[in-house]
């Protein structure tokens, strides 16, 4: 398990470790989680990326899926069971 402080670091770690799954917040300060999906997928094409957001904006969802995310989770509806199910499904 890794945690990145920037998109550059996330892409570097994805390339180095080739994780099965990455959880990415849509809003990352001055960086875009959507761009994060693209960079992670470029560095590690087999990594399955799940976007997480407190903003249930449909455009975020569409853009994230188009960028290569396999799922989009709304933080407001997120509980431990839902997170576990999405992670298990995405990691398959």
Strand order of the largest sheet: 1-4-5
Main sheet record: 3 strands, parallel
CATH architecture: 3-Layer(aba) Sandwich
Structural class: alpha/beta
Distance between the termini: 17 Å
Could you please describe the fold and organization of this structure?
With 92 residues, the chain is an alpha/beta fold. It has one domain (7-90): Rossmann fold (3-Layer(aba) Sandwich). It has helices at residues 7-17, 33-43, 58-67, 80-90; strands spanning 21-25, 27-28, 31-32, 48-53, 69-74. A 3-stranded parallel sheet has the order 1-4-5, sandwiched between helices. Strands 2-3 form a two-stranded antiparallel ribbon. Strand 4 (48-53), helix 3 (58-67) and strand 5 form a beta-alpha-beta unit. Helix 1 (7-17) packs parallel to helix 2 and helix 2 runs parallel beside helix 3. The model has no long low-confidence stretch (mean pLDDT 89). The modification 4-aspartylphosphate is found at residue 25. Residues 1-90 form the Response regulatory domain. It comes from Ardenticatena maritima.
Briefly characterize the structure:
The protein is α/β, with parallel strands linked by helices and 92 residues long.
Helix and strand layout, with pairings?
Blueprint: H1 7-17, E1 21-25, E2 27-28, E3 31-32, H2 33-43, E4 48-53, H3 58-67, E5 69-74, H4 80-90
Parallel strand pairs: 1-4, 4-5
Antiparallel strand pairs: 2-3
Helix pairs in contact: 1-2, 2-3
Q: What characteristics describe this protein?
A:
Rossmann fold; single chain; globular; alpha/beta; 4 helices
